[in-house]
Amino acid sequence: MVWSSSLLRFGVFASLGAGSQAAYPTRARPSHAPHSTKSASSAQAASSTLAGSSAELPSTLAASSTGTASSTQAVFPTPAANNSQGTNNTHSAYTIQDVYDTTSFFDGFEFYSGPDPTNGFVNYHDAALANTSSLAGYASGGVYLGADFTTMNPSTPGRGSVRVNSKKTYTKGLFIADIAHMPSSSKSGCGLWPAFWMFGEGGGWPNSGEIDIIEGVNSATSTTFTLHTSAGCSFSQGNCNAGNGNTGCGQKINNAQSYGAGFNAIGGGVYAVEWTSNAISLWFFPRTNIPADITAGNPNPAKWGAATGSFSGSGCDIDKHFNGHQIVFNTDFCGDWAGQVWSTDSTCSSLASTCASYVAANPGDFKEAFWLINSVKVFSPNGSGTTKRDVTPHHFKA
């Protein structure tokens, strides 16, 4: 593949809140990964008017999510004010609540730049540094969240990357993410730990629950749909408080198009999560099989058929164990999951003795380690279920 060296100018990220100092609980991960109880001690949601920058971006951004060719020479505009509030686009079950896309994404999300509580070989950038490093912006009709793929042997804490969380929190609703590209690498994903997930901070993690929508490490070819809760929540898939919430309960999505390079090869697709008092369900739709009602902006899960994964039953009071969730996208390297299982992955361990040494010495392998998000849409019954966040979260997991 030929990589472009086009110059790209980033615009302004609007209205990002000031940073704060706090303790941040360790991010949980599925049962096959060990857990660390270490916590970070700082976080920052940067603010400022961002200057232009120039950088190389992957040539895969030359094609938009609809397949229409466009130049890798791109201008990243200042996000307009989010005008999705009060929209009356409804169907029998849901009302559109929020739309995060190229008109509004960076108005509704903030950057985390504290230490990684999962001990990853990663340096999460604030908004200003993400801008000057060309790791965040708008490209090919989508929201670009990237990772550094040029720096050889970056200093501690590790390779530059981005993680963002929604300023609003949500309790129940329908969450639909149209994603054109997710992080992968030229070496089977080795070293990567990307995630699209939601969690609540109320009462300290995991008392308000966590929903992992997309998550995997290293040479994984599919994602795992996982829940983490406090004690007293079990489904047929297991105890969601297993390992004090660190293990959780999960369902592997056995579809090679659902994750990583397989997902990117088909132009991505749509992940939808319906969260009600009775069930938390997930659907994955490849790009060529997205339901017409989603495309039309009037989604109706009742018409989608069986969910790709679902948790329901009398063993868990969902309303008690899940509330006040932020939406999160991040790309981690190594750490307490990808790093710990490195030696057991024959594909990856053949590349280097440790995950961190491989990630440090092979920046070019991570040109594909980026999210390209067409939109995230939140639908709520009768328009309820959200809380405006005006400050950096006090308990921000990484």
Automatic annotation (TrEMBL):
The keyword Hydrolase applies. GO terms for biological process: glucan catabolic process. Gene3D superfamilies: 2.60.120.200. One of its GO terms (molecular function) is endo-1,3(4)-beta-glucanase activity. Its EC number is 3.2.1.6. Residues 71-346 form the GH16 domain. Residues 1-22 form the signal peptide. The keyword Cell membrane does not apply. Residues 36-45 have a biased composition (Low complexity). Residues 24-45 are annotated as: Disordered. It is an enzyme of class 3 (hydrolase). Keywords: Glycosidase, Hydrolase, Signal. Belongs to the glycosyl hydrolase 16 family. This is endo-1,3(4)-beta-glucanase.
